[in-house]
């Protein structure tokens, strides 16, 4: 009887090994995608009533020598104001914008530091001097260093930027005629520094510059500094400070815009 059990075990052993390999492959395939979602809300009552919502979605996919990134951000702010005609209180939008960034990196060698990239960006801000802004770039990048606790990568390349300026119609003017566009050749440079301070706290610094070749064209600079604290395995608390700077804006608009946000991040 024991010999029969031993023979059966020997016969099943190869299948158990194949099952373990299949399970490991499935785990690796599942881990190729990293997805995180952010949500933050702030409501004020009393003398001032307002509601703010910040949302974001980040997707990363790694396979072989390819790295694909997709990031979406949205911000909505509403403030309670009194209507001059009716005297009734109503919520009015004071800020409403969203942007989306997609980038693909291809490593020039397996596990190497150098890579080629292609990126595209779109932003729509209801309260800026631009109806929308979009850009595309491709070039070369490098992982300058990567340790167990920190990493730094940067890339640079030529590109093109397309801006649509918001139409501000005069009396009797056609808004479609007043709307203007601007196309500019740019050099794009971006960098990301990450530092794992301890098992629970992570620091990130991101910077991107889109420098126009012509001095009278609009150049764009963006920076985001964030500090993330792990609450549980899949839930994090994030504090971020963002700065957007445009060199050329319409009269009555600021060149610099800042955004401070506190959000919860769920990773899955």
UniProtKB/TrEMBL annotation:
Keyword Signal: yes
Signal peptide: 1-22
The protein's name in its UniProt record: DUF481 domain-containing protein
Record keywords: Signal
């Amino acid at each position: 009887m024991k010999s029969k059990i031993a023979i059966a075990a020997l016969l099943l052993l190869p299948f158990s090994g194949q099952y373990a390999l299949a399970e490991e492959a499935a785990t690796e395939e599942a881990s190729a995608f990293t997805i995180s979602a952010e949500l933050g809300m702030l409501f004020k009552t009393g003398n001032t009533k307002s509601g703010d919502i910040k949302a974001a979605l980040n997707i990363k996919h790694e396979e072989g020598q390819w790295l694909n990134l997709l990031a979406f951000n949205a911000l909505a702010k509403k403030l309670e104001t009194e209507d001059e005609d009716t005297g009734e209180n109503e919520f009015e939008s004071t800020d409403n914008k969203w942007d989306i960034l997609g980038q693909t990196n291809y490593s020039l060698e397996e596990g190497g530091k150098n890579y080629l990239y292609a990126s595209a960006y779109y932003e729509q801000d209801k309260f800026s001097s631009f109806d929308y802004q979009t850009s595309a770039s491709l070039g070369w990048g490098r992982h300058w260093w990567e340790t167990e606790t920190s990493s730094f990568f940067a890339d640079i390349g030529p590109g093109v930027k397309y801006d649509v300026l918001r139409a501000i119609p005069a009396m009797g003017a056609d808004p479609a005629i007043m709307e203007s566009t601007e196309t500019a050749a740019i050099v794009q440079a971006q960098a990301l520094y990450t530092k794992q301070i301890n098992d629970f706290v992570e620091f990130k610094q991101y910077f991107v510059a889109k420098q126009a070749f012509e001095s009278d064209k609009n150049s764009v600079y963006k920076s985001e500094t964030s500090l993330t604290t792990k609450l549980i395995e899949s839930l994090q608390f994030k504090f971020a400070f963002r700065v957007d700077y445009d060199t050329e804006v319409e009269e009555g608009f600021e060149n610099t815009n800042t955004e401070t946000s506190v959000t919860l991040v769920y990773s899955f």
